[in-house]
Amino acid sequence: MSERARLALPIVLVGPMGAGKSRVGQRLANDAGAPFVDTDVRIAERYGPIDEIFDREGEEYFRIVEREVVAEALREEAVVSLGGGAVLHADTRDDLASLPVVWLQVSREAVTPRLTGGNRPLIAAGGIEAWAAILEARRPLYEAVADLAIDTSRRSVARIVDDITERFGGAR
Predict the structure, then answer these.
(1) How buried is 86 (Cβ within 10 angstroms: 0-12 exposed, 13-18 middle, 19+ buried)?
(2) Are 11 and 102 in contact, with CB atoms under 8 Å apart?
(3) pLDDT computed for residue 171 by the predictor
(4) How far is it, in rounded angstroms, from Cα 86 to Cα 2?
(5) Are 16 and 135 in contact (CB under 8 A)?
(6) Contacts of 40 (CB under 8 A, 6+ apart)
(7) d(Cα 73, Cα 82) in Å, to the nearest integer?
(8) Does residue 56 have a pLDDT over 70?
(9) HEC states along the chain?
């Protein structure tokens, strides 16, 4: 895209781990000339690696920290990628109701190689079976907050970004 895409900001990406939120978000932000905020990265910068937060403090503490970081990010004029479980918090879902939200979906087959060798605490012990169970539990929440759903399993990042830009282009 030669000229900058105009997007309604913030625009929010949700979905399970491995769906491509960071890759798509970075490209979307770059094309739009907007900042990119990955809330998981922001949490790690402030509080340390997420797997260590889980080990040290537990998931409940992590979700409190996550909510704080997400609430802040959703007030920025940016492309915002939320961690897979951010939609678990009712206040986050309420915040998303007034924002453009894209649910990035991915098949089990496509996500398996993407997650290999990672250090994601919620699937560390259970692997792809744990991933599938988490997705099924969160699916109704993703559906509830999403304005657009895109399957990233077999699509290029460029095509995904084009679809998002086509849907949410223009100033708000």
Answers:
(1) buried
(2) yes
(3) 45
(4) 34
(5) yes
(6) 50, 81, 83
(7) 9
(8) yes
(9) CCCCCCECCCEEEECCCCCCHHHHHHHHHHHHCCCEEEHHHHHHHHHCCHHHHHHHHCHHHHHHHHHHHHHHHCCCCCEEECCCCHHHCHHHHHHHCCCCEEEEECCHHHHHHHHCCCCCCCCCCCHHHHHHHHHHHHHHHHHHHCCEEEECCCCCHHHHHHHHHHHHECCC
Give dist(CA 62, CA 147) in Å, integer. Answer: 27
When pLDDT is cut at 50, 70 and 90, the band that residue 125 belongs to is: low
The Cα-based distances of 128 to 89, 100, 112, 113 in angstroms read: 24, 29, 7, 10
Position with higher pLDDT, 104 vs 2: 104
Q: Which two tokens stand for residue 9?
A: 């900001």
